[in-house]
Amino acid sequence: xxxxxxxxxxxxxxxxxDASGRTLGDEEIAAVTAALRSGTLTSTKGQFVSQLESRFAxxxxxxxxxxxxxxxxxxxxAIAALDLxxxxxxxxxxxxxxxxxxxILYQGAIPVFADVDPRTCNVTAATIADRMSxxxxxxxxxxxxxxxxxxxxxxxxxxxxxxxxxxxxxxAFLSSYNGRFVGTIGSIGCFSLQQGKHITTGEGGLVITDDxxxxxxxxxxxxxxxxxxxxxxxxxxxxLNYRMSELCGSVACAQxxxxxxxxxxxxxxxxxxxxxxxxVRGVQTPTILRGAQHSYWKYCIRTDASLxxxxxxxxxxxxxxxxxxxAPRYIQKPAFACEVFARRKTFGSSGYPFNLARPEALxxxxxxxxxxxxxxxxxxxxxxxxxxxxxxxxxxxxxxxxAAANLTCEVAS
Length: 413
Ligand SMILES: *Cc1c(COP(=O)(O)O)cnc(C)c1O
Prior knowledge:
The protein is of the alpha/beta class. The protein folds into two domains: 24-256, 3-Layer(aba) Sandwich (Aspartate Aminotransferase, domain 2); 259-330 and 374-412, Alpha-Beta Complex (Aspartate Aminotransferase, domain 1), CATH 3.90.1150. It has helices spanning 26-38, 48-60, 71-81, 102-106, 125-129, 151-161, 212-222, 246-277, 311-321, 339-342, 370-378, 390-412, and strands at residues 64-68, 89-92, 110-113, 116-117, 122-123, 136-142, 165-168, 176-177, 180-181, 188-192, 205-209, 283-284, 292-293, 298-303, 327-328, 379-383. The strands form four sheets. The chain has a seven-stranded mixed β-sheet, with helices on both faces. Strands 12-14-16-15 form a four-stranded antiparallel β-sheet. Strands 9-8-13 form a three-stranded antiparallel β-sheet, with no helix packed on it. The protein is globular, with a radius of gyration of 22 Å. The model has no long low-confidence stretch (mean pLDDT 96). The structure holds pyridoxal-5'-phosphate (PLP). Residues 70-72, 96-97, 99-100, 142, 168, 170-171, 192, 194, 205 line the site of pyridoxal-5'-phosphate.
């Protein structure tokens, strides 16, 4: 092949790291100004956070919603609400954000990793069942990239075992399964308002539940377990201050109004890209289970077996040269390969709570995780945004197609 130097076309895409790809506008400015002018910036006395909570509960069709300071705090509230014993096991996924895992350890419980389906990168009822023991006290799933896990089966498994399911929906606002929003299918749903999520307050989180006891414990956990409004309040148990401030609460109210349109737009654009990539050799578009609706926090593609494993790195290079800030192999390695797990870096040199675990629960042998390793080797996470226009999507689709064409041509020669 002749070496010809073609200038690479370059398009600046909206980014969720700044104003270009965020729906922060006059509504948020008016809301935060009203919060500031009120002079009341704590949610214990102000109006905005409580308004956010009742509106989010109504939108989701949940009985209770509480705001907190981050998605990590939201997961921590959910785990703390279960009042686990040290050494109890929580089955979870090795492909997620660390904010979904560190709260388990902080509560003295053991994250036990289930393998994932390499097509969706999500845990399944079968992989969870494979890790269940008499010490399993909860299941914590992540709907990765906004693509729902097989919730009916997972909820059925949990029901049979008599244990709760926590849904980490930090990437999955308004995703649904059989017409029900994720976060309302299990016992507790957790959400994040961090800078890069569907809607944002910079940092922030939300939890929802229908269970009054879990709701009470989550409310208390956010508030140092102080019994606000009780006749004889006390600090009822060990808890932190995870409150959201009114500054964030006011912005979140305005962002919440925009959420349905944000998700609808992301879906429409994602379907357009899927259509463009339908016949591109070597590339698989997202696998969505029957009955599931994806909310496209990110658009994750996978290279298929016709391409070598490293093709995903070449493809990422090609996309990055074109200004598409993609992430090959997402988190690079399974969560259990990080130092906190691999070297038990927790509380001093105690090894707590790992020192309480069954050896089997800490078996991180790669042979146990074929789906996880296969998934991470071949995925490419493409940044997604509701402020893309159709030309942006065509640009991304063309970049992926041309990368794949170069690669399949190399394989053939
Ligand atoms: C972002 C994220 C979190 C943590 O949320 P923060 O607001 O960053 O603390 C937890 N779980 C998942 C799946 C996430 O994507």
